[in-house]
Fold this protein.
Amino acid sequence: MSVKLLLAAASFSFASAFTPTTSIIQNHHNSHRLQKQSQFFMVQGQGDSYKTVFVAGGSKGVGRLVVDKLLEEGHKVVALVRSDEALSELSSLEDVTAIKGDAMEYKDVEGAMDGCDAAISTLGGGSGAGEDGKWVDYVGNNNVIEAAGILGVTRVVLVTSIGCGSSKEATPPSVYEVLKNVLIQKEKAENVLIKYYTNMNWTIIRPGGLVSDTPTGKAILTEDTMAIGSIRRGDVADLVVRTLSSKNTQKKILSAVDPSIQSSANPDGKSAEAFALA
């Protein structure tokens, strides 16, 4: 490993809001090495058939709807869940393998993902940090990303939020201030994917304000980093699953909003150019 990479890894660790565990740092190093060894097996293009998809966050919210959408499209699903209730509910569905575990534990994630062709993470939800000060928005998503790299999983779709990274300026200051802590953690997970997994076929989707209501079918993805607005959870799930096998979303960061919904975050109704999925 080059000195340059070691310095980059050290810089990233120092910038973290908490000191990562030794295993997390080591996994970054191992992942980089294994990626170089397994590039032949990594799918660089998209449009491939991902038969078995790992879903983190699949027990509720957008993640639960993603599971349903994947099944509708003929995929098999492996879902990592924490509760016995979620385990029972998802296990009752045909073509779903529910595995009890904790996304905060790397080995749980790796064990559940082993054998899958793609991974989707919707982990988060603003529940805050645990008693140990760690956030699932970073640690859980980081575990999913690292496990994919170690296992040679060909495809990763990470769902974060508008307000992360290049979309920070799109968020009204008062809204950003309320969500700042969780957005920072999600952005850290994005940066792991962007900086360390250059050989991976990934897409980041940043939804606007989530609404629990009947999907409109009018939501869009856009590369416009100033896009802001609301979106129904079902529409996010639909866009995520469509993105999974899209041919033109490799290494794309896309915001997801619904221009048909009025939003207090976008009182002027500013429009954004839709990104056409191929």
